[in-house]
Amino acid sequence: MQAQLIALDWGTSSLRAYKLGPAGVVLEQRSLAFGIMHLPSEPRDIAGVRCSDGFELAFDAACGDWLDAQPGLAVIACGMVGSAQGWSEAAYRNTPVDVASLGQALHTVRSVRGVDVHIVPGVIEQVGLPNVMRGEETQVLGVLQDLGAEVLIGLPGSHSKWVEVVDGCITHFDTFMTGELFAVLSKHSILGRTQKVSEQFQGAAFDRGVQVARSADGQRGVLSTLFSARTLGLTAELTPEQQPDYLSGLLIGHELAGLPTGARDLPIILVGAAPLCARYQRALALCGFARVSLAQEATERGLWQLALAAGLTQPSLEA
Amino acid sequence: MQAQLIALDWGTSSLRAYKLGPAGVVLEQRSLAFGIMHLPSEPRDIAGVRCSDGFELAFDAACGDWLDAQPGLAVIACGMVGSAQGWSEAAYRNTPVDVASLGQALHTVRSVRGVDVHIVPGVIEQVGLPNVMRGEETQVLGVLQDLGAEVLIGLPGSHSKWVEVVDGCITHFDTFMTGELFAVLSKHSILGRTQKVSEQFQGAAFDRGVQVARSADGQRGVLSTLFSARTLGLTAELTPEQQPDYLSGLLIGHELAGLPTGARDLPIILVGAAPLCARYQRALALCGFARVSLAQEATERGLWQLALAAGLTQPSLEA
């Protein structure tokens, strides 16, 4: 099947490349460790030019052979590749944004082989506390087909995003530093000293953490409940193996308690790694959120939609 | 002036020794780096016995000469020296506790020179989420003279404690991991990467952090506001030099938002290092707490009161 688009999901720690066919179907995909903070450095010839630029080298490794085989293919990319530390900075676009407006705002960088890479800009919200995202906007736009007028899309991770979408438009979003906080507390704080990592998910401990976050104690805030991850160990109510999942449930519970009022009435779509989404799904159920579903292939679908809006490719007639 | 008591404030990272005279007046004091996690290890003769135990060596370094000069002196100690990782474990006492009940519950360890060291037990609260402290109970009991029936005592630090006292009795307390969270976020998270430490206190940035914590945004919780310490840098609203104090104000503001309802109506006493107490005093004023004062010499006064209650020393007639 003839390829129609190369789509790159290029973040801080990894680079995923998709060769997409008619209607955006995935023909081939690759995952490389060449995130923007881990670029290759060994000089190499690309299209007859000696090249030592890490972005060029990573780009060539990801899809040079696809371009050799089909030179006219369009290329679109999202994620931190468009940040100030990326290949070329794609300035943030203000909310509200939708597929059409973002697709028309792609930022172009020309690679040494003469191919233009079209980079999706990140999104900034400047109403109230400023908030930014790069990459998540593409995932959000990738899951919007067949959804109702108003949805809330959760993207759990180091910096979880919760994105409100109205009529296909990203209108508002929040960032919760839940994943990174879990990591630094487990690795560098007193809480980590009594934790023992278990192979097995400790469901009861996780649930207890969620419940504490939504209890009267939890309303005093996470700074106040955190220490319980230690004291419940001291009082033998949590084993060392249970403490990591208790802390995970506690932090996720506090995150969910911070969702906008009205979130409970919206359909919620989770986008992200399956094990993490499973934790959020469990916590959402405990907190009484009833309409939760999971989305797949959000990034590649979003990149396809944006490439369509930009005129980089055509909707397939036979789709 | 004749000494009446040796009082040790023996924590994780430091050991402070006080030689107290009549009425608990401080005759001499020392600060050593020999916290329970940093004990000396070089073997030495103590009272004619070859000794390699770190607690014995630190104890001798702190007050061996005082005991040589006045062998009958009583010794009292508080802090992590009584923890499971300390010299000898002094089991936690349940709330409520006061000077009399805690003074009668001292735990004794006999040093190699034949002197008994009387260790103040820590305090545990097991109503709701468990909470523990070791050392802070002594500071609290040291500042209770001349106070009203109900006070709230704040002890800012790595693990800030807020202790409610009714009629001289510790009835309830909370722990906020504010100081440790500030440290691990600054050192190990993405927030630290754009921070630049400034010699000068950035008051406006600190105040802004406090205000965000008590704003409508702040009510969504600290997990949600944390990222603003980065985004306000991205939007050039905070310089790199302002970001650390913004984060400090933000976290302290969230801590204060988590104080018990009714805290606003109580007199508040702050106990701790002067620069940190100054930050809390500033934040408390911004948050509308009117009756705030600072206490001095809380530990040595508390140890004196507990030694009196234990009968280890006598109140001075001429005091």
From TrEMBL, chains A, B:
<keyword id="KW-0418">Kinase</keyword>
<dbReference type="Pfam" id="PF05035">
    <property type="entry name" value="DGOK"/>
</dbReference>
<keyword id="KW-0808">Transferase</keyword>
<dbReference type="GO" id="GO:0034194">
    <property type="term" value="P:D-galactonate catabolic process"/>
</dbReference>
<protein>
    <submittedName>
        <fullName>2-dehydro-3-deoxygalactonokinase</fullName>
    </submittedName>
</protein>
<dbReference type="GO" id="GO:0008671">
    <property type="term" value="F:2-dehydro-3-deoxygalactonokinase activity"/>
</dbReference>
<dbReference type="InterPro" id="IPR042258">
    <property type="entry name" value="DGOK_N"/>
</dbReference>
<dbReference type="InterPro" id="IPR007729">
    <property type="entry name" value="DGOK"/>
</dbReference>
<dbReference type="InterPro" id="IPR042257">
    <property type="entry name" value="DGOK_C"/>
</dbReference>
